[in-house]
Each structure stands twice: as structure tokens, then as C-alpha cells.
Amino acid sequence: MFELHQLRCFVAVASEMNFHRAAERLNMTQPPVSRQVQVLERQLGVQLFDRTRRSIRLTAAGERFYFEARDLLRRAEDAKVIARSVASGHLGNVSIAFIPIAAVPIVPIIATKLAKELPNIRIVLNEMMTGEQIERLRTGRMDIGILRRPDNKLPGEQKLLLREPYRLAVHCDHPFATREDITIQDLDDQNLLMYSPGHGRYGYELLNPMFAAKGVRPNVIQHLGQGISMLALVNAGYGMALVPDGLRQLRLENVVIRSIELPPEATADYHIVMSEDRKDDPAVRQVFEMICGAFGAEQ
What pTM did the predictor assign? Predict the structure, then answer.
């Protein structure tokens, strides 16, 4: 089988129609160039040039092979560039799972940043609850996960990506909409939308013990999985809700977001995890580090 340096010699000669000029173009002497073309012809079993003492010209086979040889050299160069890009983490495919609520404070930032700074990496975003993320990260079927509470037994690099305080979302007609210095005790006997023990387990397990410790008993009127759903109901005048600060970006017409005094542990945490099985992929590593850098992530 012929080699790339033989193709380069042939293409140079075919382009210059002169062995001497082709040799100069390749920074070689003429005899090695002539030998490489002759070896190539023997390997192909066809004559590529008609030669006379004064000139050369391509045969019909040579003209066709000239077209194919240039394409092969171009693709070989492309393959080299692609291989180097993959090795440097600037080319590849990376799958990122995120809990639904991260769609507001996190996903838009990373999507635009990655598109701008790593345009040759194809990012596949997957909305997914924490439990499913953990299973896919464990088996290497997901590259990166953005979730609430990582499993300590889950292999892979983990960092705290973002920590948000909880805010009180109330309807604009509610007295709390203009009240200052709201405390957790003020929620006693108030109509409250609470997180469900299923899809809203993080908020459920965080807020319920906090209420119990403070002796506060809000009137829970619904259990819901997502803060976004809660805001939609508050907007309609149906109760109030404790939601992560990032949801204030939604700016619903009838919703007022108020600060509330809560225990310091009452935060909405977002963690990022890189699958142990995918850590050696340069593109995955590059994306993981860029996301961490964008949010100043900590171990």
C-alpha cells in the first residue's frame, strides 16, 4: 500500500509538472522525488505520467489519481487536526444531566459559555432527577451531572457548584408582599406549598425538620415536586412558597419574592459530578472544569 509521503511527492510533481520544481517545493532533491513517484506507480500498477526528455504530462489514470490523492492528503491533515483537538479537549461529545430547577440559575449560563468558548464540543443536555443521574453517572452512561445531594459512595469528582438561600414567594396582594423582617415563625398557620417527599425530596427533607425544630406549623395545602410549579400557583393567588433565590429570575407578574430569616443550613445546593468512567475523556474534563470555573465551584 502506498504511503502519504509518496502521495505528497506525486501531488507536488502533478501540480508543478516539473520534477525539479516539485523537489524544491518539498525541500528535497530531485532523485528521491522521482524514486517515490516510481514506487507509487509500481504499487498502483499504473503509469501516472507520460514522460519525455523535455516534459511530463498526466495520463488519464494520473489525472484521476491526482484528484483522489489531493483529497486523501486533505483528509489526512483533517484527521491529524481532529485527533489533536480531541486530545486537547476541544472536540468531542459531552452529555450533561441537570435537575429541572437548575434550568433557571445554571443551565443558561453554561450553555452559552460552552457554545462560545468550546464551539466544537457537542453538548447534549438532559433534564433528569437526582436518583436517575446517580445511576447513569455510576455506569458511565452520563458524563456530567448537576444535582442536589450527591451520593458519597458515587465514584467521580464532585464539587459544590452553587449555594442559594431560600426566599419566600407570595402573591402581590398578600400582606407579606410589603412586609419587612419576615421570619420563619411568621409562616405558622400560613397556607404553604410544600415540596413532595418524592420529586421534591431535597426541599421536603430540609424544610420539614426546620419547621419542627422551630415549632412552626404552616398549613400545607399542596405537595409539589418543583419550585417552578409552586411559583405558578402563587402567581394565581394559591398559597405561598419557599423557593431558591435563583427562581426570582422568572419574574412572574403577580409574584413578589421576599427575604426571610431562616436557619443558615436552609440553602438550595447544586453539586456537579463527573462520572469516574468518563474522567479520562479530554472533552469531558474540559467541560467539567469550565463549568466549575464559571461558578467558582469548591470541593
Answer: 0.73
